[in-house]
């Protein structure tokens, strides 16, 4: 069997590992010209669901790379008001030396690419497919094409595979924008940062729609390109941020970061000090999007995983973990002679529960109402 995966994101890479481990002929087609190419976001929380999926699909030497390049586990999740008064706090035991509780997205993807040199093709943008009785013909924007017995759309929230397979499927913009940034953890920043910010994910809110989250990325083994940092994410509507999408998505990174600086003018001095210590060139904006219902479809040769089929807001910290769950379940289906429908039957209810949780969390966290 020949499997073509479109998209070398978290789910596509995990699936490729699971299939290669089982001896399946697999290829991954990624539109980016290289693994480094774009702003990919910074810190990702890995839950026990994600860890279990990684253990199922990864060969041991790849799993070791994932563990070595993950962050040191934290022991706290906390919420604050803008003056750093604690609103909630949850402590938990520090996980063991082999635990993966959060990762830097770039370092994680690089680790997931270990051993896939002959499987991965960069600079290959999928355009469309044609299903035949025996498989699927994939066409790329560079004019080339290839045949596979199974096509897996793992091409993220803007999936072209989904757009062709399920043209009616809506992806909802929930009206919240994020500005992502990075505060390098210099000695000085470590000294001035509120101690909880170095222990785990912390979210501060002014109660009027502006939120600022911090998540420490303290590596076991940093990538060659950069060291430890605090991920910082400002959230709010265009109105709250005082900038339209046209402005947000075209302005230089340093101007984006000035929006963050302006938004915390009256906040606690420690927060303002951290914002001032950020690398302004590392800022980038994103739109939060979600599906409401995970749809079903019918095909013997074509399937979808991760954000391509069930995009969700980051408010449950579960999009990547659910993509990993999908990858493990689909790898099992493709290597044990099950049909694609059996994957779909398990994936849809599992993903639907997480999407619904993420919608509820987003309403609470961002002070919005999502029409469902
Ligand atoms: C800011 C932010 C923070 C998040 N934090 C968390 C978190 O803490 N925990 C968590 O579990 N989840 C988190 N998520 C969600 C998580 O990042 C996604 O759910 C996850 O990356 C989905 O994985 P995926 O493999 O489905 O898609 P992606 O990782 O998005 O990968 C899709 C890949 O497909 C490629 N591609 C797209 N179109 C084409 C094409 N036409 N041809 C070829 N290649 C193509 C893209 O370049 C990309 O590499 C967060 C998301 C965001 C945006």
UniProtKB/TrEMBL annotation:
UniProt GO MF annotations: FAD binding; monooxygenase activity
Record's keyword annotation contains Nucleotide-binding: no
Family matches, as Pfam families: FAD_binding_3
SUPFAM superfamilies documented for this protein: FAD/NAD(P)-binding domain
Keywords (A to Z) from UniProt: FAD, Flavoprotein, Monooxygenase, Oxidoreductase
Domain of life, per lineage: Bacteria
Keyword check for Nuclease: no
FAD-binding domain location: 2-165, 295-357
PANTHER family (alphabetical): FAD-BINDING DOMAIN-CONTAINING PROTEIN, MONOOXYGENASE, FAD-BINDING
Protein's recorded name: FAD-dependent monooxygenase
